[in-house]
Write a structure and sequence with these properties.
Layout (H helix, E strand, L loop, with lengths): L4 E5 L9 E5 L9 H10 L1 H8 L9 E5 L7 E5 L11 H18 L4 E4 L11 H18 L5 E6 L2 H14 L1
Parallel strand pairs: 1-6, 2-4, 2-5, 5-6
Antiparallel strand pairs: 3-4
The chain binds ligand AR6.
The site of ligand AR6 has 24 residues, from helix 1.
């Protein structure tokens, strides 16, 4: 793992980073899981700004302010729903990470935290998603030195163990 990446276990809404990434839905109008937690912690102004964005296509990313969150920005990306792996899910998930990081670089964001996009309600197998997340981030950081720190935030021990295992395998 590069010096710029780390893995922690915890609640992404509590992190004092420049940006946190939301695993959103196409409407960007809130939902369950990490999306619900981010909207609750940010307050109603976040939903008001999201209403102005006209949604977000799967694999794309959009940015809002963080409002009541410790994070200054929220980057909303919509991961693929897992249909078994034959519908381009891997590539789409990779695009979520690349597009989120591209926005981060455009906004001079130096520290950014990602949840395990698509691995909850959307059913993407955790280890497979984890490999994509780590390899996409490492590739991006190689060519974008302005981003100083990427944190993978795991909600629970099993996700944390999975990230550490994959990082050991890939490095
Ligand atoms: N901090 C960090 N990670 C979290 C948190 C948190 N507070 N809460 C959950 N996770 P999910 P998806 C983890 O279901 O699969 C929503 O309803 C969770 O354990 O939040 O991309 C949206 O509106 C899992 O590992 O997102 C969409 O409709 C990961 O975050 C849909 O769910 C992602 O789980 C998106 O589904």
């Amino acid at each position: 793992m590069s010096q710029q990446t780390s893995v922690i276990q915890g609640d992404i809404t509590q992190l004092p980073v420049d940006a946190i990434v939301n695993a959103a839905k196409n409407s960007l109008l809130g939902g369950g899981g990490v999306d619900g937690a981010i909207h609750r912690a940010a307050g109603p102004e976040l939903l008001a700004e999201c209403r102005l964005l006209n949604g977000c296509a799967t694999g794309e990313a959009k940015i809002t302010k963080g409002y009541q969150l410790p994070a200054k920005w929220v980057i909303h990306t919509v991961g693929p729903v897992w249909y078994g792996g034959d519908r381009g899910e891997d590539e789409t998930l990779g695009r979520c990470y690349r597009n989120s990081l591209t926005l981060a670089a455009q906004y001079q964001i130096k520290t950014i935290a990602f949840p395990a996009i698509s691995t909850g309600v959307y059913g993407f197998p955790l280890e497979r998603a984890c490999k994509i997340a780590i390899s996409e981030v490492n590739k991006f950081l190689h060519s974008h030195k302005s981003i100083e720190q990427v944190i993978f935030v795991c909600f629970g021990q099993s996700a944390y163990d999975c990230y550490l295992k994959v990082i050991r395998e890939l490095t």
